[in-house]
Design brief:
Number of strands: 5
Order of helices and strands: EHEHEHEHEHH
Distance between the termini: 44 Å
Strand content: 15-25%
Shape: globular
Oligomer: single chain
Structural class: alpha/beta
Helix content: 40-55%
Strand order of the largest sheet: 3-2-1-4-5
Largest sheet: 5 strands, parallel
Radius of gyration: 16 Å
């Protein structure tokens, strides 16, 4: 089974990596698909995010990193995927994700959504939280892979003496 794990990954967090790693045990192949959203102003370019994810997942043989724009189900059909991988942190995530899963099913009836509950240690974690902490000079080394933390610190260099 090929699964798509879609998202903005701006930046990729240890929570994302947890979902990717666990997804690789369930699926033959996991395609981490970075969404190109023209309505958002990301911290990193699509290519930078793809490079960060590739570096963080290089030890996982059945992970591919790609980017897409438009509907996730259209991309999934194009890639021959039959599953979407989604992480759930809280009940509020579930409500939105369930609605999206039902919508995706109406658009492509061959797609299934696999929900993985986030591991406890990452239940609070989001890319937004990482950027907020870094923006105000807080440490993020325990929230993202080390190479990503260094990239983020460079973006907010005026807030970090190191």
């Amino acid at each position: 089974m090929i699964a798509i794990y879609p998202g903005s990954f701006d930046p990729i967090t240890l929570g994302h990596l947890d979902i990717i790693t666990r997804g690789t045990r369930l699926c033959d192949r996991v395609i981490v698909a970075v969404l190109r959203n023209p309505n958002k102003v990301p911290l990193f370019t699509v290519q930078q995010r793809m490079d960060q994810i590739s570096h963080a997942t290089r030890h996982l043989d059945n992970v591919e990193v790609d980017s897409f724009e438009g509907l996730t189900v259209t991309y999934a059909q194009m890639r021959g995927a039959t599953a979407l991988l989604r992480g759930l942190r809280a009940v509020s995530d579930f409500e939105m994700e369930l609605q999206m899963a039902h919508t995706n099913k109406t658009l492509f009836d061959q797609i299934e959504t696999i929900f993985l509950a986030t591991s406890n240690e990452y239940s609070f974690l989001s890319s937004s939280v990482v950027k907020e902490v870094a923006k105000f000079g807080g440490p993020i080394d325990h929230l993202v892979p080390q190479h990503v933390a260094l990239d983020i610190y460079k973006c907010y260099a005026k807030n970090h003496p190191a």
